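Please, structure for the following, as tokens.
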Amino acid sequence: MPADPTRGPVRISLVMSALTVTAGAVDAVTFLGLGHVFAALTTGNVLLLAFGVAQTAGVPVGRPAEALGAFVLGVAAAHAAIAGVGRRGRRWFLLVLATEAAMIGAGGGYAVAVGGTGALPDHAVTVVVVLIAGAMGWRSRGMLEAGVPDMPTTVMQIALVKILADLLSSGAASSRGPALARARRGATVLGIFVGGVAGALLLRLGPGPALLVIAGFEACVVTAYSRVHHLRAPARPLPGRS
């Protein structure tokens, strides 16, 4: 019997869905527990920065600026790492996942070391926000390189628009697209929501322990990805390569 041609795409979709959940969870932890700043949702940070620049009461400039700067550095670091590892024929996607999990774990570990399960002093919040936002920038560059359709893992607006467009397109089968694409869009929206709920609940343990749980979950995802042949990310030409 021929192999199911969707087996690989379905499994990589599960990995991406898990990562989408963690993006929602880390944003819940950083926004609710670390001073109203986002780690993954850069649109939110740009708006917060704009509000702060406009001197809106109660909206500081520093924290969203720190997160945006760390996100940019994470993207730049991942870009260099992917190009270097890819040229040597190594598994760059595994490197992206493992490094992100390590950065989130480092942020959680530092938070626990400084504040235990309680609130963190301002300087410690800065360190944790920079680590987590940097991890999300690192991940975002990796997800761009992986190019799994409809699964950016950190944002859901386009997926939601496509879902609504499918529902409003007169029910024509040709306009709804493949079932896998529809499932990925739904998983993206649901994943962000589930992650937000999970992160808010985990925050009851404290910011540090919450981040350690998220990092542990990502470590399990990395282990699953590293051991299953069908979970390879799509091959894409790296910048500067034909």
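The two ends are 36 Å apart (CA to CA). The chain is about 70% helix and 0% strand.
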